[in-house]
Each structure stands twice: as structure tokens, then as C-alpha cells.
């Protein structure tokens, strides 16, 4: 019995001396969408069977109420099988831009691009500098905050990382000015950029012309398993 007591006391001592507190993750999608708000006057979101369902007539982001600094964000996205244009993305460290038409989201965006261009996992600076990686021939305006791109170009492996009409897993890592984006385990973006150090998360629907004209659409963007782990 004495040995048994000493064994449990030893376990309690080890646990109490741990210097590595457990980092907890937060699941952002719940039935009431309590972590999100709509800064626009259009766009709709609902949760069905644990999936976030996004519809919109115009370019739109459902944004978190909370702002985040350094974190690891993981999310899965499923794009629709439609003839009209469809596009999505994940804004991170996002900011609110006020225009004559109201408020809109601005900032870093991990692109979801099912077009023939195949730039899913690229880094787009929404409503600001446009394409940071890869470089667009006419729509890239990096400034002094864009300090380094660790990747030499846009490779076939990066272009093939996204799988259309399947669930695609995104991982975004922000540590100070170091930013990484992974799509299905493939590193598609790794840059050092100091433009924004914190901000909200935003999930995008780029808009449906069919919904605008008819009130109906099958152009629906789905997200699930959206989880964020804040880093010390």
C-alpha cells in the first residue's frame, strides 16, 4: 500500500510541475453562429448538420466578432458544381473598410479558386494590394510591408493541391510577420509581411448572379470543422 501511495504522489508531483500548459482550440461553427457577425447588409449564413452554408448576391464575408493575433486556423471548404462564377476564401487578420456603400472586409485572404487558373492557397490582399502570391501580371501591388516570399513561384504541386467538388482542408499559420498557407497538406504560401498584426477571420461567398436575378441559387459555399488555436 505504501508503494502505491508513493506512486500516485509521484504522478501528482509531475503533473503539478508541468511547464507546458495545454493550448486549447476553439471551434468557430456552432448552431447559433455565436462567434460571427455580418458587417454587410446582404449575405446569409446558416448551419446544417454541422456545416456552415453561405449564400450571397455579391462579394461577401461572414466575419468573426473576435480579433486574433497569432494563431493556427484549420478549415474545410466545399465549392459547388455550378456554371456561373464561384469563388471563396478565408480572410485572416481582417480589417473593416468603410466606403460610400457601407462596410466591407479588407486584408489577407487565403484564396479558394476553382477556376482554370488554379490559384487556391495563394495569398490575396482583399480590397488593398491584391495578389501577393503568386504574382499577377496586372493585379499585384506589394508595398514595403511585403518583406519576403520564401517560395520561388507557383508550382504544379501547388496548383494541384485543391480538389474540386471535394472537401479541401486549409491550414493558416500566423506567427508575427511569418504567414503560411497549406491546402490539403501542401505548402502553397510562405511569406513575411507586416501589414496587419491582428484582426478578424472572414469566410467568403463571392456572390451569385443567379441568386440576384431569380432569388434562387445552387451556388452555395460550405465550410466545416473551422477551428482556431491562439498562440502565445
UniProtKB/TrEMBL annotation:
Q: Which organism is it from?
A: Marinimicrobium koreense
| Entries under Gene3D superfamilies matching the protein | Exo-inulinase, domain 1
Q: Which domain of life is it from?
A: Bacteria
Q: Enumerate the spans annotated as 3-keto-alpha-glucoside-1,2-lyase/3-keto-2-hydroxy-glucal hydratase domain.
A: 32-229
Q: Output the Pfam families linked to this UniProt entry.
A: 3keto-disac_hyd
Q: What is the lineage of its organism?
A: Bacteria, Pseudomonadati, Pseudomonadota, Gammaproteobacteria, Cellvibrionales
Q: Which InterPro entries does the entry mention? A: AL/BT2_dom
Q: What is this protein called?
A: Uncharacterized protein DUF1080
Q: Which GO terms describe its molecular function?
A: hydrolase activity
Amino acid at each position: 500500500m505504501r508503494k502505491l501511495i508513493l506512486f500516485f504522489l509521484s504522478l501528482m508531483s509531475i503533473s503539478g510541475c508541468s511547464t507546458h500548459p495545454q493550448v486549447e482550440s476553439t471551434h468557430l461553427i456552432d448552431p447559433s453562429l455565436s462567434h460571427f457577425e455580418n458587417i454587410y447588409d446582404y449575405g446569409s449564413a446558416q448551419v446544417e448538420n454541422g456545416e456552415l452554408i453561405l449564400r450571397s448576391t455579391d462579394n461577401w464575408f461572414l466575419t468573426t466578432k473576435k480579433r486574433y493575433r497569432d494563431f493556427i486556423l484549420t478549415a474545410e471548404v466545399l465549392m459547388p458544381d455550378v456554371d456561373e462564377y464561384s469563388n471563396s476564401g478565408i480572410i485572416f487578420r481582417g480589417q473593416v473598410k468603410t466606403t460610400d456603400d457601407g462596410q466591407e472586409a479588407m486584408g489577407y485572404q487565403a484564396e479558394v479558386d476553382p477556376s482554370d487558373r488554379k490559384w487556391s492557397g495563394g495569398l490575396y490582399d482583399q480590397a488593398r494590394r491584391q495578389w501577393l502570391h503568386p504574382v499577377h501580371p496586372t493585379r499585384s501591388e506589394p508595398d514595403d510591408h511585403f518583406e519576403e516570399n520564401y517560395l520561388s513561384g507557383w508550382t504544379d504541386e501547388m496548383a494541384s493541391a485543391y480538389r474540386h467538388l471535394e472537401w479541401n482542408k486549409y491550414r493558416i499559420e500566423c506567427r508575427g510577420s511569418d504567414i503560411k498557407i497549406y491546402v490539403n497538406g501542401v505548402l502553397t504560401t510562405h511569406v513575411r509581411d507586416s501589414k496587419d498584426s491582428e484582426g478578424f477571420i472572414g469566410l467568403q461567398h463571392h456572390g451569385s448572379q443567379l441568386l440576384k436575378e431569380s432569388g434562387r441559387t445552387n451556388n452555395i459555399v460550405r465550410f466545416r470543422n473551422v477551428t482556431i488555436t491562439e498562440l502565445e
